[in-house]
Amino acid sequence: MAAAAALLRQRAGGGGGAAALWRAQRRQRSTFDVAVVGAGIVGLASARELVRRHPSLAFAVLEKEKELAHHQSGHNSGVIHSGIYYKPGSLKAKLCVQGAALCYEYCDQKGIPYKQCGKLIVAVEQDEIPRLKALYERGLQNNVRGLKLIGAKEIQAKEPFCRGLMALDSPYTGIVNYKQVAQSYAEDFQEAGGTILTDFEVTNMEMAKENSSESEDGLKYPVIVRNSKGEEIYCRHIVTCAGLYSDRLSEISGCSPEPRIVPFRGDYLVLKPEKCYMVKGNIYPVPNPRFPFLGFHFTPRMDGSVWLGPNAVLAFKREGYKLFDFSTGDFLDAVMYSGLWKLVLRNLSYGLSEMYRACFLSAQVKQLQKFIPEVTVNDVLRGPSGVRAQALDSDGNLVDDFVFDGGSGDIGSRILHVRNAPSPAATSSLAIAEMIADEVKRRFEL
Questions:
Q1: How far apart are the first and last CA of the chain?
Q2: CA distances for 194 relative to 51, 55, 62, 238, angstroms
Q3: pTM for the whole thing?
Q4: Sign (positive or negative) of CA dihedral 305, 306, 311, 312
Q5: Tens digits of per-residue pLDDT, 78-92?
Q6: Cα 343 to Cα 341: distance, rounded to the nearest angstrom
């Protein structure tokens, strides 16, 4: 199976003899029991867990990019979340608390560096204090370790440049390079016998025809997965972890297009290196339930830099990390969806404010000065961006929890779609993988 990637890359390009060899060997070497589509951190964690549980089966990960963890998994803040924000009893809360513990344990085992630098959620206005206290109670219900409420003097003891009336101290929040974590998952998967095929953009899934000349394998591996180059692999079952393209893969397979993915770009600022001393750990605002996104925060990075932000604006391309990145198809797909307009109309003032701040550096810095008054426009630079795969229903509601589904019929019954894996999916990746492996076993009777 390890030769499958090479065989796929050699397809037809090596002359008639090579093409014939590829066709002859393809059926022997590109058949898998389960194909996982998407080599982000959730897909790789799931593939790793599956091959660990079922070492006698053949597994493949199919990734459209030439490298792993290239999109959301490689464009995030790097925070190991503790599970404070999420509704008690929700999958988000349960998987985050479990996932954070598993993430620290895994990093220790693999020697992956991380920093348990903690987080302060800071109230800067009196009307935020009741919400902060409610957040504290929620964190306790979610079994988050070490939480405590602290006053202004204790805030300054932990973050000398931060000003606030009260804060929720979460000492077990940390930071890590999730791309490094994802690559380690991939190494585990391959060492256990799994196959990773990069540059394999899935464009079609169909059942093998029973009257095919290769019907013997067609009966055992009845699902054909085809990429944009016309290359194929055969498998018994599929698990999709496609992030920004999860809705489109669901449609390709004949499953439900809901919830839809609407991409939101988050632009970060960075503190100039000589100003990074002003931030020691994560500094977050108290969430406002009237607004759909969290707001600006201060995030130290493993390389010693400090990211500030992000904002949240509609991206005109699903993988558009720059201001002027544009895809006509992606743009029309978003703006023609009624759920987006319902969300926009409910949050019009907030959305316009986010767009204004995206254009004017001083407007973003003004938000940061609520927490660290010493920060000025001269202290910051424009930084990287990420694109969030926000699942949205037809009523304009943000889908706030994990969504897993499949379909009916020949193909639909052989697929498990991870339709929504929002933040804190990176933190929760190992816990999510365990749940996906349980669901795969239940649905597919592996």
A1: 20
A2: 7, 9, 11, 14
A3: 0.90
A4: positive
A5: 999 999 999 999 889
A6: 5
